[in-house]
């Protein structure tokens, strides 16, 4: 299917997506059906989009999307932007906010990033902030080529901060839904970010360390480790006053092993790709964040601290060895 977007339609909302990787490009491909989309792209993706459009495959539809505008900085944006999505890794949030500070002051900024702490950074720059989570697996297959492989729930969006966020949220949910993305309003997005993080705290580092897909983490030898990670995180969440939808660690573990791990069994999480490519991971916003908060509250978090240290060591070893068959 080939989709052409009419870019002169001035009625369409204007959306900027900052960070064109697995999530950002997939989001751009869908939102282009309901909005004028500008994407902050590295040159390889920008060149391919200009040459032949964005190639999308998988559960969000197989299509070539034309009409996405690639930008290199805030100077390439139109004078008025309705929403800014940040889809860079959490390691790049502060730098993107600095780069786009002038535009963000007047805008409603949405984070779809994993981990804890991004919205806190963004709210220092943005007029209004909407927090978000996306429990879907995306990967980059080549220049401007993405695949959406599996999903375990709708996108969740909720008011984070700023006077205009509530009104902006209702409109944004309408736009995202019109684009064909499953989305719900979160009544408590702070808790929502923690709820999503439970999945990333458990499966992401193990898959990254051992170069295995998500399904492998259900192995009996890893279940005990995962249970400790979850128990520690629940203790820290309780100290922070965060209430996730599962009342106990056991209730979440039943959901993790009964629903989420089966839903993502065959795919690799984002941290696996970070290690594979030799990029810094988001461990400091996940297990590292839990360990740091545990220390502040006097709660022991040895499993989260250990996993964070292992990932930091793995990061320092550089990209995966080229002869590693699982990564080739
Ligand atoms: N992949 C997935 O399945 C999911 C990911 N997430 C979360 O979504 C967020 C994005 O993840 P994902 O899409 O996988 O990450 P990617 O690394 O695939 O994409 C991020 C992109 O942003 C680019 N970028 C960062 N800073 C800049 C900048 N200043 N200027 C231009 N480009 C920039 C990066 O380029 P470069 O690498 O060259 O810096 C990269 O291409 C993360 O928080 C992740 O945890 C959430 C759910 C699922
Ligand atoms: C939901 C999941 C595991 C999807 O890949 C994810 O959030 C990630 O990869 O970081």
UniProtKB/TrEMBL annotation:
GO cellular component: cytoplasm
Pathway where it operates: Cofactor biosynthesis; coenzyme A biosynthesis
Enzyme Commission number(s): 1.1.1.169
Keyword set includes NADP: yes
Residues in Ketopantoate reductase C-terminal domain copies: 188-314
Example GO molecular function: 2-dehydropantoate 2-reductase activity
Domain Ketopantoate reductase N-terminal intervals: 15-161
Pfam families given in the database record: ApbA, ApbA_C
Keywords: Coenzyme A biosynthesis, NADP, Oxidoreductase
Any one GO BP annotation for this protein: coenzyme A biosynthetic process
Top-rank taxon, per record: Archaea
Reactions this protein catalyses: (R)-pantoate + NADP(+) = 2-dehydropantoate + NADPH + H(+); (R)-pantoate + NAD(+) = 2-dehydropantoate + NADH + H(+)
NCBIfam families: apbA_panE
Task of the protein: Catalyzes the NADPH-dependent reduction of ketopantoate into pantoic acid.
Family indicated by similarity: Belongs to the ketopantoate reductase family.
Record-given protein name: 2-dehydropantoate 2-reductase
Species per Swiss-Prot/TrEMBL record: Methanofollis liminatans DSM 4140
